[in-house]
Amino acid sequence: MPTDQQPDSWVLHTENTTYAVGLNAAGQLVTRYWGRRLDRVEDIPPAQDLGRWASFSDRGTLNQLEYPAYAGPNYVEPALKITQPDGVRDTVLKFESADCEEGLLEVVFRDVHYPLKVSINYWAHFGFDLIERWVEVRNEGDEPMVIERAYSAVWNVPRGPQYRLRHLTGKWLDEWQMQSERLTPGVKLLESRRLTTSHHHNPWWSLDVDADEEHGDVWFGTLLWSGNWATRAEVTGFYATRVATGINDWDFAYRLDSGRSFETAHAWGGYTSKGYTGASHCLHDHAGEYLMPDRDRRWDHPKPVLFNSWEVSTFDVDTESQTRYAEIAADLGVELFVMDDGWFKGRTIDKAGLGDWTPDPVKFPDGLSPLAERVKALGMTFGLWIEPEMVNPDSDLYRNHPDWIIHFPTRTPSEMRDQYILNLARLDVQDYLIAELDTLLKSADIRFIKWDMNRNVSEPGWPDAPGDPREIWVEYVKGLYRVLEQLGWRHPNIVWQSCSGGGGRADYGILKYAEQIWISDNTMPTRRLPMQVNYLHAFPASTMEAWVTDMGDPIVPLSFRLHVSMFGVFGIGADITKWGDAEKDMARTAIAQYKQIRHIVHNGRVYRLQTPEGYTALNFVDYDTQHLPSEAVIFAFRTHIPDPAVPLTVYPRGLEPDRLYTLETLELPHADTGGHGFDSDLRAALDLREGVRTGAGWMYGGIPLLLGNFDSRVLRLKAVEEGNSE
Ligand code: DGJ
Question: Pick the catalytic residue: 208, 217, 360, 521?
């Protein structure tokens, strides 16, 4: 009777999935199975060896290899490529040993000739249906080898179907566009070569054949890495689809000196039979449990409502002007006041100051403390913007250390936004930043840091690098993580936000250090709405900062803007000094309502709902101690259909079918609830929705809404306590 673990095959189970690998007759590590859970080991297909096809393709190309090194007649994308000291450029791996216990599997290979050890690692995250993968490569010889590609994983999906690849693309001000395309033979490359992760492509991906939000098989994954990365989705001539992913090998080399190891970025991959929503839930639940820093476990501390100064003040900040905003913000119910760019020495425009992290003596003659204390006295915490990886040529730091920037000595470094990038691969630069920022963070009661990065790399040189200068792509990111980790330890009460000109650094690597993400500088609510919904495919709402601002078409009412911000981490970036009593009243109410429902948005699960073109709706569900759905909040928006429009019925999801729930509309004062063009009888008939129904009643019967143009609704469902059904 075979057991899950044999000398040559290993099975990882999660709650609902099985991932099985094994050595085939040729000794290659191949994917045996990845999909719906199979409890009977005999049901799992054996490790296949397809041998040779004519004189053109061999088992390297034909078999579904778990981690192919470039070796022999292998023409699919390899995961590993290494050049030996004698110039030999392929890597022939032979199985040595494996260790599999408690969901952790390590399979060790060695090169048949060279002193090279390759450990392929798997970690099954049981309750989340995710497999984490990474690889360690070690030089056990005396001479240096050079790694030219070391991906984290190759994910093989079942051979045969023509898959649909979904992924997120964009650019500054236009991130989070969902792409969906059928893969055809060849390689589709998604990547970053910019040193940051994600303005243009995000490392999140999914594959399916005919899934939708609610149903169907979906394989998905992402990378825990905040620098250059590549994902190659390949369809071979032999009907196999595979996703090879890891740190980008473009311009990459890593010198593996004697005794030195290289650990790849970690990758997550998952399978669900519950459609795109199921895939989001696996990632979100796992992120909530494992990734957020302990100090800010999302269920312990609600993410504070914040005000940010950028869109109203830009660089023009001082104690007096910021206090004016702070007083109004506090009155509206804001909990965290964040001063953005412009506060430090010489920073009147973006041409100077980056690098000198001391308060500007003209704007803040007594430092930051007076403002921080004023904010505190108003009942809020104080936060600050910094951009520590950057330096303006017009700064003391650059004048003292021009050699600290990333550059090629013989080339003129390109300025973008008048700034250069400090080389965080250098230990002295890391140590300097840790010390400087530590001093800054001690100088006032600072509880939030917005960590920005406003340009991409160019001339990626590292003069005097201890290894190959192309190691900068890896050592920079590790240096950044080290700085953030050290500062996190020293300042455990600070909440960190990752920003890179909006959503340029949104990934699960940075989320280990920064629990909030600024997903875009585009705060136009109608454009923001689909961006936010798409972001939620990859990341939980508890990480997504969403501000109400003045950007965009003035026809879009404040109520709509407030509602868009309520399904993330709520913020205000609008000029609240210009708001009249009605606007303040509306915002005050929205913030109070948000505080009542934020635990559902942040701790609960998201369901993106089917709606006709022109509408967007989603709901979040939270659970009681029995893990039963106990509360939900529904958001519904109508964006761009001129009045009159047909009524919309929203069908929430995720409720317990037999449980009774009450429904309540969270009304905003002074809101124009639209519906122009409907006569009042129709309105009365359709807009009658409050009451008590079972989960099934609400989910399948639906909730009728009348939404006018740019109209929106927030509705709350609450389980009726036992014995209290009336
Ligand atoms: C880019 C960010 O995305 C903005 O929110 C703002 O912080 C500016 N940088 C400040 O320079």
Answer: 521
> For 518-564, how does the pLDDT look when each residue is reduced to its tens digit (9 = 90+)?
999 999 999 999 999 999 999 999 999 999 999 998 889 999 999 99
Active site residue 394: no
- Examine the pLDDT at 300 and tell me if it is beyond 70: no
Task: Indicate the range of 75-84, 193-202, 212-221, 300-309 predicted with least confidence.
Answer: 300-309
What tokens appear for 296 in the block?
């800010």
- Within 8 A by CB and 6+ apart from 273, the residues are 16, 36, 215, 216, 217
Q: C-alpha distances in angstroms, 513 versus 2, 183, 307, 696?
A: 43, 35, 22, 40
Cβ contact 383:447 at 8 Å: yes
Whether the per-residue pLDDT at 471 is higher than 90: the answer is yes
How many CA atoms lie within 13 Å of 577's alpha carbon, on the beta-carbon side?
11
Identify the CA nearest to 118 among candidates 183, 47, 65, 175: 65
At residue 301 the predicted structure's pLDDT band, cuts being 50, 70 and 90, is confident
Ligand 1 atom at minimal distance to the Cα of residue 308: 5
Number of other CB atoms surrounding residue 261 within 10 Å? 12
| DSSP code, position 69 | B
- Name residue, tokens 């590549």: 230
Residue of the CA atom closest to atom 11 of ligand 1: 341
Residue 397 has pLDDT above 50, yes or no: yes
- The per-residue pLDDT for range 236-290, each reduced to its tens digit, is 999 999 999 999 999 999 999 999 999 999 999 999 999 999 999 999 999 987 7
Residues flanking ligand 1, CB < 6 Å: 310, 340-341, 385, 452, 454, 499, 501-502, 518, 521
Paired tokens of 79: 């995961």
* Residues contacting 4, CB < 8 A, separation 6+: 10, 11, 13, 41
Tell me what the mean pLDDT of segment 328-353 comes to: 97
221 pairs with which residues across the strands? 205, 269
Q: What percent of the chain has pLDDT over 90?
A: 89
What the block records as the tokens of 416 is 């973008």
C-beta of residue 10 within 8 angstroms of C-beta of residue 4: yes
Nearest-angstrom CA–CA distance, 246 and 224: 9
**Measured distance CA(69)–CA(93) in Å, rounded:** 8
CA distance 55 to 159: 22
**Please, what is the average pLDDT of the chain?**
94
Structure confidence at residue 646 (pLDDT): 73
pTM of the predicted model, to two decimals? 0.97
Active site residue 452: yes
Other Cβ atoms less than 10 A from the Cβ of 141: the count is 17
SS3 554: coil
Give the number of the atom of ligand 1 that is nearest the alpha carbon of residue 340.
7
The count of C-alpha atoms lying within 13 angstroms of the C-alpha of 584, restricted to the half-sphere facing its C-beta, is 15
Q: Which atom of ligand 1 lies nearest, measured to the CA of 573?
A: 5
Tell me if residue 87 falls in helix, strand or coil.
coil
Query: Can you say whether residue 137 is alpha, beta or left, with left for phi > 0 and alpha for psi between -120 and 50 degrees?
Result: beta
Residue 367 has φ and ψ, to the nearest 5°, of 80, -170
What is the per-residue pLDDT for 682? 61
Contacts (Cβ under 8 Å, ≥6 apart) of 705 = 636, 647, 648, 649, 650, 686, 687, 689, 713
- 3-state SS string for 569-635: EEEECCCHHHCCHHHHHHHHHHHHHHHHHHHHHHHCEEEEECCCCCEEEEEEEEECCCCCEEEEEEE
Token pair belonging to 431: 């140590």
What does the alpha-carbon distance between residue 264 and residue 118 come to, in Å, rounded to a whole number? 11
**Which tokens in the block code for residue 704?**
């009728």
Kindly report the number of other CB atoms within 10 A of residue 110's CB atom.
18
- Tell me, what's the pLDDT at 641? 75
Taking each continuous run of H as one helix and of E as one strand, the counts in the chain are 13, 37
